Amino acid sequence: MQSSHANVHLVPAGSFSAQGVQAIPAQYASLIPAIAFQVPDIAAEAILELKATDGGQEMACITSAVSNGKTFSVPAISYIAAGIAGAALVMAGVSAIGATAAAGGGSLATGTISPSFVEVFTWFQGIAMNGMLSVNYPPIYRSFTKNFGFATGIIPWTQLQTSIDSFRQMTGGNLTDSNVQFLQNATLAYTDGSNSTAILKRGLADLALSLRDITTSVNSSASATTSNSALSQVEVKVSGIGAFVESLGVPQQNTFMTVLLVVAIIVAAIVVGVLLLKLILEGWALFGSFPQSLAGFRKHYWGTMARSIVQLILILYGVWVLYCVFQFTHGDSWAAKALAAVTLSVFTGILMFFTIKIWQAAKRSKEAEGDVSLLYEDKQIWIKYSLFYDAYKKNFWWTFVPAIVYMFAKGCVLAAADGHGLTQTIAQLVIEGLMLLLLVFARPYERKSGNVINIFIQVVRALSVVCILVFVEGSSLFQAHPDNLLTTHRTRHRANNPNHHRCRPHCRPIRTNRAPRNPHRRQRHHHLLQGKPPSQAPQGSREAQPRPRHPHAA
To answer: What letter does residue 2 receive in the DSSP assignment?
Structure first.
């Protein structure tokens, strides 16, 4: 390949790896501000050039992401959020007990306190789902959203993933490059190339690395001081939902089965918990004075269990739709696809059943009373169906229906459009905007605090999607171009520093975060280099003069 502006030399391609420690001279390290070593998930792009020993002609160059080792993916955040999520599950059971106890206590609730634990839990889900779009997130935001992966059922569990791999292998799955062992030995390369700052990059771009203390491996032939296993990692380019789940140690083909098994464990815990509570109360009634306030609950054990499971389905419905559709489009096991179809049909059928029953009860109430007061005053109806509408005003009891449609649409769009960030973002913005309009104009919650808090939450969700538009590839409004109002640090730095140059077109990335042409297609490859690197490169600084660039280079 030749250009009228520059000559590019090609040599046989092969795999190249390098490992070592290189001290940065003080004159270059002083250019990096101290804050760059403290801000989590800050990253830069280092450029390594290989030059011929005779004449110093450039043979190849390699770009690599560099970070300071700090991250916003902190276990403490996950533990705190998981504690709140656990409380949400407990409070769902307490709510069920309170509803059933109302039959014996003679009073009915008139509204839930907001923000409820269910609202907090779905808020965590929203944060995690915002991190699943196929856009070029800043590393700090991607790390932050990982803290809430548990709210969507994604829990790192190696033994569980090994069992799922075995299940997939027996049911038509391809484990060649999609299993937990492969993922543990792989390097994830996200599809964003703008995770560096101009200040940090300026100091590194002018630095020529000396190769005396770096050992290399060419075509799987490593030097004696370098371990082959350390240099044999495979780069996996990921984006969207696959990037989110694999960053948590779950192969994307295992996603649905992971969530299915986690939910099955939760359902089993609910059943065991209710049965254990039944045993305790029955023993209490036999050997002691039983409280009258628990008489209603004692008569409705099975109703309490069913109510708790339905509450769980309602909380998880949005992410369940997401993972089922994702399994249909990305899964490789026919059995997992069948389970996804069955469970999605069952969950949707359960919600439709309760919706129809509530509509029928509301119709009977209107015919008998002229309004829907029986939904709130009839104890039998309240016990069975109030979990869907107890937070809403009587005139807006139906608000749970658009809420279910909102969850379905959000999960379906996010999974079906995986790999198409612009489509995902625009569709999500429309969905969030419609829900915001409903809350603002209807104000359906029984308590004033419920309206204020839920409108605020919805405003934040809509604004979050608007902000995500900045990182969408293909969005001309926010494209990083010198003529646009919004430009990236990289573009501004290159525009203001004519001496800054990038690698020539034949350069190959190592662990970069540049998106592939088709982000929906997942690419796995070793680090390839179109060139045979010399065994030793000369020391000294790189030439600080502008270099010609191929007119068609990206």
So the answer is: B
DSSP string, 17-86: EEEE--PPPHHHHTTS-GGGGTSTT-EEEEEEEEE-TTT--EEEEEEEEEE-S--S--HHHHHHHHHHHH
- Token pair 């038509």 is found at 172
Cα 318 from chain centre: 14
Distance CA 347, CA 318 (A): 11
Amino acid at 126: G
Is there a cis peptide before residue 498, judged by omega within 30 degrees of 0?
no
Q: How confident is the model at residue 41 (pLDDT cuts 50, 70, 90)?
A: confident
Residue with tokens 């004519």, as numbered in its chain? 498
- Joined together, the tokens standing for residue 160 give 């569980």
> Cα separation of 406 and 411, whole Å?
9
Residue 51 to residue 182: CA distance in whole angstroms: 34
47 pairs with which residues across the strands? 63
Q: Helix, strand or coil for residue 137?
A: coil
CA nearest to 410, candidates 323, 350, 478 = 323
CB distance 261 to 271 below 8 Å: no
Residue 261 backbone zone (phi > 0: left; psi -120 to 50: alpha; other: beta): alpha
Q: What is the per-residue pLDDT for 99? A: 53
Phi, psi of 48 (to 5 degrees): -115, 120
Residue 485 DSSP code: S
Give CA separation, 467 vs 407, 473, 479, in Å: 21, 13, 13
Q: What is the dihedral of CA 525, 531, 535, 536, to 10 degrees?
A: -110
What's the CA gap between 112 and 94, in Å, rounded? 12
- Count of CB atoms situated within 10 Å of the CB of 550: 16
Whether this model's pTM surpasses 0.90: no
Residue 392 sits at φ, ψ, to 5 deg, of -105, 160
Whether 201 shows a pLDDT value over 70: the answer reads no
Tell me the DSSP string of 323-353. HHHHHHHH---HHHHHHHHHHHHHHHHHHHH
